[in-house]
Amino acid sequence: KETIIQPNVFIGNNVTIGKNCMIHPNVTIYDNCSIGNNVTIHSGSILGADAFYYKKRKTGYDKLISGGSIVIKDNVDIGALCTIDRGVSGNTTIGKGTKLDNQVQIGHDTIIGKKCLIAAQTGVAGCVVIEDNVTLWGQVGTNSGITIGENAVVLGQTGVTKSIKGNLTYFGTPIEESRKKLKEIVAIKQIIKNQKK
Known about the structure:
This protein is mainly beta. The protein contains one helix and 27 strands. The radius of gyration is 19 Å and the shape is globular.
């Protein structure tokens, strides 16, 4: 009811879409995806492609079958040109009220909590747990299989190489609490300055 599907949207088999959604042109929704109420998906986004999940063999790579799907909860906004891969053994889930900027990649089996903000060009690997109210600023990248704690803020261009606690702000690669990282950078600059004297 009251959902608008704009031109050139592809919707696969067994897809459910809730009330009052806006699906913009050229969106692709693969089979078995579930989309809640009041969801906006901007142009060119692709939901439900296979996981990037391969087993290396001497002769090349075996592709693991993606047996899961995608669940998008209510009040989620998905920007243009986002890609959300379906799960391998479970569902990739985007929690209620979460907002994705343009060009965001979400890997297989990842679970994103409620009211998260994820800025442009962020890449979230497979099997990541992002708890509620997390903010990931632009060009953040994560390793697979980690947890990002509730209310964490990760500043732009940070590499999240390990699980991090909530309620703190983080920066850098390797990742550290931002104030600690900035103090380290200042200390290194001071050492270099002193060596030049």
